[in-house]
Structures are given as C-alpha cells and as structure tokens.
Automatic annotation (TrEMBL):
ATP binds at G160, E161, S162, G163, A164, G165, K166, T167. Residues 7-61 form the Myosin N-terminal SH3-like domain. Keywords: Actin-binding, ATP-binding, Calmodulin-binding, Coiled coil, Motor protein, Myosin, Nucleotide-binding, Repeat. One of its GO terms (biological process) is actin filament organization. GO terms for molecular function: actin filament binding; ATP binding; calmodulin binding; microfilament motor activity. It comes from Zosterops lateralis melanops. This is Myosin VC. Residues 586-608 are annotated as: Actin-binding.
Length: 1183
C-alpha cells in the first residue's frame, strides 16, 4: 500500500502538450534514485520519461473507480484524475453534472437534453443529495431542504466563463423552486419570478464570440418564502452591466438582444412612430457585422418579451416608454458629427436622427446639438464653455448613450422588483447568484479588472467555506484536526482594495483635473513594482500591468480605466454616492452571502467551437484551475480524501473478511478488525464515528485485493464447475452402461414360471381394486342422501317464511348517519355479503318505488349521494374507508342497473329477482351521477394507495440487495447516499409485497369487485415499474449488470405475488415490461453488431432516449465488467433511427389508466338478506 513506489504494470499520468495529461503503463519497476521511468503510452509508444524523485508522476485510479458521481470518491485525487473522470462522464456517459465535494461541476453540452422536465423535478424533490445522479435540481433541492430544516437563508452561487451555461443553470434552479414550492394562491407569484428572466435576458444578454446568449451583467435574485416555504416574492440586484457594448461590439458580436427584437418589429404599425428600420441601418447594432443569430427569431422573441412584461403587470404604456428610450439610443448612434477645423465639431440642424432622438425624448433639438459638441468646465472663479473635437464629441455622444441605457436598465430592474414585491414579512430566502467567472482575454480592460476583483472576493469566501466544512467533518467524526494549508488570496485583495491600493489610486487620479491613465499607471509602478510579488510590469509594455490572481496571471491595459471609472466618481462629486457604486454593491453582496449557507455550481465550457459533447482537455483544465475545483481537490487530498461509511465498507469488502470476523455481531467492529489486518500501516486510515477516512491510494489498494480475491474465486468456481460437468458426463455414461447390462441380463432370465406368477398377480389386483371401489361408492351414496335430506328441509322452511319489503323508512338522516358516517369497515365486514350497505340502500329505494312516491325517492337518493360524498371527504386519506365505500358505491350502482327493469340487465336475474325490479321510476340519471362519484372515489383511492407505497418502491425495488454476493455499492465521496449511512429500518422487497398484500386483503374484505380490484392492482404495478425505472435513469450507480439481476429477481417476486393472488389476467405484469427490458439491457452483452441488433429487437417498450441513457449510464462494478463503448451506443442509436417514439426520458408516474365499472349482478335475493344487529338499524321493519 505504499503509494510512493511505482511498480511494473502500474499506470501513471504524464504531462502532455495537447491533452494536458496522458495515461502510460510502467514497463519496468522504478527504484529510488532512478532518473527515468520506463513507460508505454496507450498508443503503444515506448518512452523513457525523466522524473524528479521528489515529484513522481501521479498514479492512475483503477478503472472501476473512474466515472464516479463525485470526484472525491476517487482514491488518487489530483488534476489528471479529475480531468479524466469528467471526460469519461461527459464524452462516454453523456453526463454533464459531476460533484466535486460541495461543488456541482456543470459542463455545457451545447445540446438540448431531456433532463429538465417536471417529472425530473418531482423525481429529485424530497431526495437526499447523494441518492440521485448529480444534477442542478439536486443542488436546488438541497438548498430548499436546508432552508426548511434549519430556518436559514441559502445562496446558490453559479459562476463560469461566458458560454459555460451560467444563465441556464440559474434559470433551472429558479424553475425548480417555483415548481416544488407552488402556493395555492391565485397571485401566480412563481410565474412572475420566472417571467423576470426573459426580460433581464432581453436587456442584459447579447451574442458574443463565445456564446449566443451571454449575460453581460451579474445578477443576484433573492427568492422569498413564507413560513410554509412557499414563494411569496423576489428581489433582484444587478452588477457590472457592460455599458460599453451599447456603443461598441467586436467582430461577430451583437448589441443587447432587445435592440434587434425592436428592429425586427419595426414594420408593425404600433412601432411606426419610433421610425426604426432593420438592424443593419444603425451604427450601434451593425458594428459587429453579425445582426442575426442562427435559429433565433428576434420578432417572435419580441412578442415573448412583451408577454412577460405584461405578466409582471408592466402594461403597454410602460413598454412603449421603454421602446422609445431604446429607439432614441439607436438614433443617437446615427447622429453625424462633422469636424470644424482641428479643435471644433458641429452637428447639422437638419440631422434626421438627432431630430427623431429629441422628438422621442421630448428634448430641445438646438440645445442637444450644441451640448453634444461643447462642454462646460466649472472652476472656482468662472464657468468656461469649451468646444470639443470631432473625436471628443463622438465620445460624448457614446457616453450619453451608455448613460441612458444604464439608467434604463436600472429602471427596468426596479420596476420588476416592484412587480415582485409582496405583502407581509419574508420568513426565509434563497439567493441565486449568476455572475461572470474569472476572465482573461488577449486585451483586458477595466471590465475584466472589476469581474476578476469580484471573483477574488467570491473565491475567498469559497475557500473559507470549504476549509470550515472540512474542519467540521473531522470534529463531527472525532478525528484529530491537523491544520491544512490552503490558498489564501487576501494579499491580492489587499493589493486591489486596501488603503493606497490600485482602486484608491485610481479614484485619486480621477479627481485630478488633468488626470490620465498613464499617470495613474506610473503611480502603480512606483508603489508596487519589486515591492509586491503579486504585481508586475510587463517587459515589453509601458501601458499595462500584471496581477497574479488566484486563477492566473492577467495583463491589463490601462487605457480607458479612468474614463470608465469616472461614471461613478462624478456621482461622488455631486454627492449622489459616497463611494464607488460597484465596490459598495459588491461589499453588500459579500455580507449577504456570508450570512447564508452557500451552494456552489461551477459551469465549464468544454470547447470554444460550441460542439456538442466535445471535450477540449486544455480549456477544461484551465477553467478547473480558475474556478476553485482543483483547490477543493487539493485541500481534500492533503489529509484523508477517501471516506466510506462502515455500511459501505462492509458491503463492498465483505469478500475479504474471514468467517471468524464475520461471526462478530457489530459491523463497525468487523470493519475495524479487517482493516487493521489488511493495511498494516495504521497511519493510512482513521476510524471516525460513522465513517472510515483513508489516505490517497488506499482504496485503490483495497480494490486490488478485492479484485484478486474475486479472480481466485472465479478460478475456483471454474475448477469446480468443470469437475462437476466431467463427473456428470461420466455418471451419465455409467448409468447408460448399467441400463444396457440390466436389460441384457433380464432378457436371458425370463422363464415360463415367471410369466405364470405375473399373470396371477394381475388377476388378484383386479378383484381387490373392484372391491375397494364398490365400498367407496356405497359410502358416498349414503352421504349424498343425508345432505339432500337436510338441504330440502332447510329450503322448505325458508319457503314458508314470509319476507316482505321494508315498510317504513322513518328517518333518512338517521339511516345515512348509521350507514355512512358511523359504519366502520373494520369489524363489520367479516361474514357479511359484499356490498350489504348498498343492498340496504337499494331496498329503501325499492320501497319508495313500491309506494310510487317521487318526492321520497328524490329526497332519499340525494341524501344517499350526499352522505357518500361527505364520508369520502372526511376520510379522504383513509384507505380502508375509501375501499369500503368504493365497493358499496359500485354495488349500489349495480343494484340500480340489475333491478332497473331494463332487458339488458334483467336477463342475468333469476325469476325471483326480476319480480323485485322497479315499477315506476327510471333512475338512469342517478346512475350517471353515481358512476361519476364512483370514479372520483376510485381516483382518490388510487392516490392514497400510491402515497402509501411510493416511498418504499425505490428502496425495495432498486436499493435493497437480497441476492447474496452481488453488492453494487461503491464509494460515494462527499455526497453520501442516505441508504449507505445506516442499514437499520430499510425497506426491502418484502416491504413492498406486504403493502400490496395489505391492499389486496382489504379490498377483498370490503367486497370490491374482482375486475375493479384487478384495475387497481394494474395501476399500482404501473407505479412500481415507472418509479423504479425513473430512478434508474437518474442513478448511474444503479446501472450495472448486478443491479439488473436484482431488479429481474424483484420483478419475479411481483409476478409470483400476482400468481398467488390469481391476478394474472389483470395485465399488471405487462406494465412492468419497460422495467423488465431495462433490467435485461443491463445484463445482456453490449459489444458486437449482433448484440446491438438484439437490443433493438428486444427493447420495444423502451424509447430510443431511454435505451441510450441506460447504455451511457452503464457502470461496471468489478474489473470483470467492461464499459459500453461510445461507438456501440452510436451503433444502437443508428439502428433505432427509424423508430417513431416520444423523445421523453421519464415515465409519467401520475398517469392513470381509464377505469371501467363492469356490470356484475348480485346473486343474492333481496328477500333473504339479513341486516346484522351491529348496524343498529332496528327502526327499519320488513312488511
């Protein structure tokens, strides 16, 4: 277990210029002091790799650990392991989400995926974070759950490069909260919160070279919840709007979307007064040479923008004011400024665009033309009007455009916040921060400086939080805490924001009348060069400076810093703000975040070409370093990176335990004993209260021991099986020889005496058998005569008993109270005919018909229906009561049909039953009402059954492992599966079968019709199959051959249950077919073309999306299993192309099969029905 040594056949990672790291296998044992490591690359190339004994190449993890949901589950935890794990998951398994401790790493697939529907939201709702595959919904659920459980505000911090998918991720978290916390109010607060996204995207997002929908501002949305944890409102704060984009766009980029939406709608009559045209006609929208985004309809998006404005209560007048401002900005950009000599400039009074600009904003045209070309300089003694050059005037025009847009943006956000305001008090909130990640370009200016400064602050908060969680984990597990070295970026923050730091020197220079970028830069050089290790002067430039950020070195050009910073400094001078608006808002943001429990989502851009599922290792590694993922890994790897619960360890490594060790009752003690035997160096692990902590490489060592033991076991089994097969063959041959010998010897031994004795024996047997049969016949005859005598006597007595209809129906209220409200199913249904209350009710109906009393009949039927409705309403969650009244409503409906006098029903009756048919009234209208009521009861009855069984389906069908020796548990990393924490009180397959049997016996006791019962069972089996399959789709750790065997075994238990209850004709088994095919797919071979063909032919109940998902998620549990290659998945996809199925991943667990109520006539004669005294209906008498 010595991780410092490198042995023959071990695999390592060596640096590579293209792939960052590449795998190599050691071909000769490395000895201390060797200068070279002999390795073979995966392409077969032999290489002598020069090594530093103090820093040997990192070891590669066993294949069995690759592709894990959580990077912290890896035994060797370093950059190449992280990169490889992400690549395998993204490229081969098509999984875009991976945990890295407390971080969710989200890689942009550049493709629409079917993993965000409401069914997926409901699948993640209520689940523990480690129980399902990593997902943005899992992070949202964890934040929501922690808020509700701890009454503490939460934050989800989403960051990443432009084009990495931040906006989409933030949008999905908000959609999740809106769905799971839906209130019953009609205010549609959730819809309003979601509607704020399209508006802010229209005015704050733009096409860049990296992203077609890039957010050019940071946004912190605070979603407010009441005491019931339902959304009551929201509030939005914005940061760092890229104002320069309004007046300048680089090649192949666009201005903000809203401008193009407006230009695309210019021909609409309502926009005629804005005097707009196509985007190509305006300087501010055509500058990047890219006015159209492929696949985007700007005009249709304009309609959507207007709809969302309206949804927020921002009606037509407000919208038109906004559009006027936007149109004015476009016209301002087209104002022509002419040079007048070298020092002056002018604008023609005839300028069309200037006059439209002034008309739209109700301004004086002459004044505007003058002040665009002149500026006022105020000194202590005088005010001077100074003309501007053409370049200065153009800058002034652009500055005005930026200022107008900036104020308009803030105004729109303010109005959105007003629309999202709520009465009453906020109980808790969840904030979602969507902000630029660390940025570095070929040319970096003031915007990048501000973004990177904000990211330094966020990274510091993140580092401290990770460090704190690590410390808490050790303390919780009673493990000695040793100080871990972690990167502290406080020095670089001080360089930027401390007294006489970069920002203070910038503000100081801005206040000077003749302040210049160059003068400010010289101050930076004087103050920091050779005095601060984090600040450098570029060798070849006098106009730039370099800062060593936490992520990377960045060179900033000083040009434009003063001008861009003056936006806020001028406000200081007029005492609108006391300090930089940005620094103030950033400070407020950090205070807010520090007061919440943070959750981190790091969005990664896999390639710069926006190609689906293409992984550029260089670009990804660069971002992983920049976003803090590798820092988390480094902190974890310093101590005990691998952590297993005792249950996980026991389940995985019980194969390494001796019989003596397994005989102990305490699993925790067993784990300790076996580990102390397997790993002699006790410094390589620590025993916590609930977990075992391992140093790097130890889990890989244990996996090798396990793999070796399994290989030995396989060899032993093969040896035994081969021996058994040979012995069986030998015994078969020997038996055949003995048989041949026996017949041969018998043939010779036959004599006349043998034949005579055999004949005599047959004659004796014949007479003996005849005697025994005659004796049995006599006994049966006597018994039959006796039974007939008693039966005839009983029937004769019954015949003479006078039974008449019920005579007096004294009190409907009393009857309804006793029959509906007070009657309890349990205790009265034993030995009672099915639907007895229904028969009693019908006899009352028949009595009203006998009297030909329409009022009595109407009153009684209304009272009956209302009574049933009331009892069902009061016991809407009581399964037994619902079952009882579903049965009786059904029987009552059948009685109304059976005795209706209609020929189609009468033909099933006995002559005596037909004498009891109704004579005076047609109750078909009431039959329809009762039928509708029965359907409502049935649906509620199904809902209650589903609620009672749903929570045990996944633990019983998917998680519990009943088959010996096929445990599929593997390390789970930081995010623990709830099922791996404790194995007491877990639900099993037996729990499901017991629940089904309870439902079945209750339905039978309550006399539910067998056809109706079958429909209910079919619905339950559909739920079991759908919930299990949906969970399988979202749990890569469950997609293994062994789990397929377990699922198939569990399905066989369900089929056996159906057979035992004689329910094979219910079609319940057929509802499990998709799950059965998924289990088969997990077990079948997945290598050749024939395998692919067999999969396509067999998996007819699974959609293409579902088949591909299972193949991509397939996870080997042992070294003997192989991953499914991407080429095989593509092969299957190609074969399934012609299939016409719904591209939907999840099954709809809310789907209800149509219920039918079959007509089943009652065999009971009304005259013979007895009313038990327990019903307390003594006031009813017979006539």
């Amino acid at each position: 277990a010595l991780v410092g040594q490198r042995y023959l056949y071990n695999r390592v990672w060596i640096p590579d210029n293209e792939e960052v790291w590449q795998s190599a296998e050691i071909t000769k044992n490395y000895k201390a002091g060797d200068r070279f490591l002999l390795v073979q690359l995966e392409d077969g190339t032999e290489l002598s790799y020069p090594v530093d004994p103090a820093a040997l190449p990192p070891l590669r993890n066993p294949d069995i650990l690759v592709g894990e949901n959580d990077l912290t589950a890896l035994s060797y935890l370093h950059e190449p392991a992280v990169l490889h794990n992400l690549k395998i998951r993204f490229v081969e398994s098509k999984l875009i989400y991976t945990y890295s401790g407390i971080i969710l790493v989200a890689i942009n697939p550049y493709k629409q995926l079917p993993i965000y529907g409401d069914a997926i939201i409901h699948a993640y709702s209520g689940q523990n974070m480690g129980d399902m595959d990593p997902h943005i919904f899992a992070v949202a659920e964890e934040a929501y759950k922690q808020m509700a459980r701890n009454n503490k505000n939460q934050s989800i911090i989403v960051s990443g490069e432009s084009g990495a998918g931040k906006t989409v991720s933030a949008r999905y978290t908000m959609r999740y909260f809106a769905t799971v916390s839906k209130s019953s109010s009609k205010a549609h607060v959730e819809d309003k919160v979601l509607a704020s996204n399209p508006i802010t995207e229209a005015v704050g997002n733009a096409k860049t070279t990296r992203n077609d929908n890039s957010s050019r501002f940071g946004k912190y949305t605070e979603i407010s919840f009441d005491r019931s944890y339902q959304i009551i409102g929201a509030n939005m704060r914005t940061y760092l709007l890229e104002k320069s984009r309004v007046v300048f766009q680089s090649e192949n980029e666009r201005n903000y979307h809203i401008f193009y939406q407006l230009c695309a709608s210019a021909m609409q009559p309502e926009y005629a007064h804005l005097k707009l045209g196509s985007a190509e006609e305006f300087n501010y929208t055509r500058m990047g040479g890219s006015t159209v985004i492929e696949g985007v309809d700007d005009r249709a998006n304009m309609v959507e923008t207007q709809k969302t404005f309206a949804l927020l209560g921002l009606k037509g007048d407000f919208q038109m004011d906004v559009f006027k401002m936007l149109a004015a900005i476009l016209h301002l950009g087209n104002v022509e400024i002419a040079a007048v000599g070298d020092e002056r400039s002018s604008i023609s009074s005839e300028d069309k665009h200037l006059s439209i600009f002034c008309e739209l904003l109700d301004l004086n045209c002459d004044k505007m033309a003058r002040w665009l070309c002149h500026r006022k300089i105020v000194t202590t003694s005088e005010t001077v009007i100074k003309p501007m050059t053409r370049a200065q005037a153009a800058n002034a025009r652009d500055a005005l455009a930026k200022k107008i847009y900036s104020h308009l943006f803030d105004f729109i956000v303010e109005r959105i916040n007003q629309a999202l305001q709520f009465p009453g008090k906020q109980h808790t909130f969840i904030g979602v921060l969507d902000i630029y990640g660390f940025e570095t370009f070929d040319v970096n200016s003031f915007e990048q400086f501000c973004i990177n400064y904000a990211n330094e602050k966020l990274q510091q908060q993140f580092n401290l939080h990770v460090f704190k969680l690590e410390q808490e984990e050790y303390m919780k597990e009673d493990i000695p805490w040793t100080l871990i070295d972690f990167y502290d970026n406080q020095p670089v923050i001080d360089l930027i924001e401390a007294k006489m730091g970069i920002l203070e020197l910038l503000d100081e220079e801005c206040l000077l009348p003749h302040g210049k970028d160059e003068n400010w830069l010289q101050k930076l050089y004087n103050n920091f060069v050779n005095k601060n290790a984090l600040f450098e002067k570029p060798r070849m430039s006098n106009t730039s400076f370099i800062i060593q950020h936490f992520a990377d070195k960045v060179e900033y050009k000083c040009e434009g810093f003063l001008e861009k910073n003056r936006d806020t400094v001028h406000e200081v001078l007029v005492e609108i703000l006391k300090e930089s608006k940005f620094r103030n808002s950033l400070s407020l943001l950090m205070v807010t975040l520090n007061a919440t429990t943070p959750h981190y989502v790091r969005c990664i851009k896999p390639n710069d070409e926006k190609l689906p599922f293409e992984f550029d290792s260089k670009r990804v590694a660069q971002q992983l370093r920049a976003c803090g993922v590798l820092e988390t890994i480094r902190i974890s790897a310093q101590s005990y990176p691998s952590r297993w619960t005792y249950i996980e360890f026991f389940s995985r490594y019980s194969i390494l335990m001796t019989q003596q060790e397994l005989s102990l009752n305490d699993k925790k003690q067993i784990c300790k004993t076996v580990l102390q035997r397997l790993i002699q160096d006790h410094n390589q692990y620590q025993f916590g209260r609930t977990k075992i902590f391992f140093r790097a490489g130890q889990v890989a060592y244990l996996e090798k021991l396990r793999s070796d033991r399994l290989r030995q076991a396989c060899i032993l089994i093969q040896k035994r099986v081969r021996g058994w097969l040979q012995r069986r063959r030998f015994l078969s041959v020997r038996r055949a020889a003995v048989t041949v010998q026996q017949y041969f010897r018998g043939q010779q031994a036959i004599t006349a005496r043998n034949l005579k004795e055999t004949w005599a024996a047959i004659i004796i047997q014949k007479y003996c058998r005849g005697y025994l049969v005659r004796r049995l016949c006599q006994l049966i005859h006597v018994a039959a005569v006796t039974i007939q005598a008693y039966t005839r006597g009983f029937l004769a007595r019954k015949k003479y008993r006078k039974v008449q209809p019920i005579e007096n129906l004294t009190s409907e209220t009393t009857l309804m109270t006793l029959l509906c409200a007070d009657l309890k199913p349990r205790g009265v249904v034993v030995n009672m005919i099915p639907g007895l209350p229904a028969h009693i009710l019908f006899m009352c109906v028949r009595y009203a018909d006998y009297l030909n009393d329409a009022d009595m009949l109407k009153s009684f039927m209304s009272a009956t229906i209302d009574g049933i409705k009331q009892v069902v309403k009061e016991h809407s969650e009581d399964f037994e009561m619902l079952s009882f009244w579903l049965s009786n409503t059904y029987h009552f409906l059948n009685c109304l049909k059976q005795y209706s006098g209609e020929e189609e029903f009468m033909k099933y009756n006995t002559p005596r039953q037909n004498k009891n048919c109704l004579k005076h009234f047609d109750l078909s209208e009431y039959r329809q009402i009762l039928s509708d009521l029965a359907i409502r009861i049935y649906h509620q009855f199904i809902i209650v059954m589903e609620n009672n069984i749903q929570h045990i389906i996944v633990p019983g069908m998917l998680e519990y492992e009943s088959l010996q020796g096929i445990s599929g548990l593997k390390p789970t990393g930081f995010r623990k599966r709830s099922s791996s924490i404790d194995d007491t009180d877990t639900y099993t397959m037996t729990s499901i079968l017991q629940q089904l049997s309870y439902f079945y016996s209750t339905m039978c006791q309550n006399g539910l019709d067998s056809e109706l019962l079958k429909q209910a069972v079919k619905q339950l089996f559909f739920l079991i199959g759908a919930v299990t399959l949906n969970s399988l789709f979202l749990r890569k750790d469950m997609c293994s051959c062994r789990k397929g065997m377990q699922i198939r075994c569990n399905i066989s238990y369900l089929e056996e249950w159906l057979k035992d209850k004689n329910l094979q004709s219910s079609n319940a088994k057929e509802t499990l077919e998709p799950l059965s095919q998924a289990a088969w797919l997990l077990q079948v071979k997945k290598i050749t073309d024939d395998d692919a063909k067999e999969i396509c032919e067999h998996c007819t109940s699974l959609s293409t999306v579902q088949i591909v998902k299972i193949l991509n998620s397939y996870t080997p549990i042992d070294d003997f299993e192989k991953r499914v290659t991407p080429s095989f998945v593509r092969k299957v996809q190609g074969m399934l192309n012609n299939r016409e199925d719904v591209p939907q991943l999840m099954l709809d667990t809310k789907h209800l099969f149509q219920v039918t109520f079959p007509f089943t006539p009652s065999p009971h004669a009304l005259e013979l029905i007895q009313v038990p005294s327990s019903f307390k209906l003594g006031f009813l008498t017979r006539v």
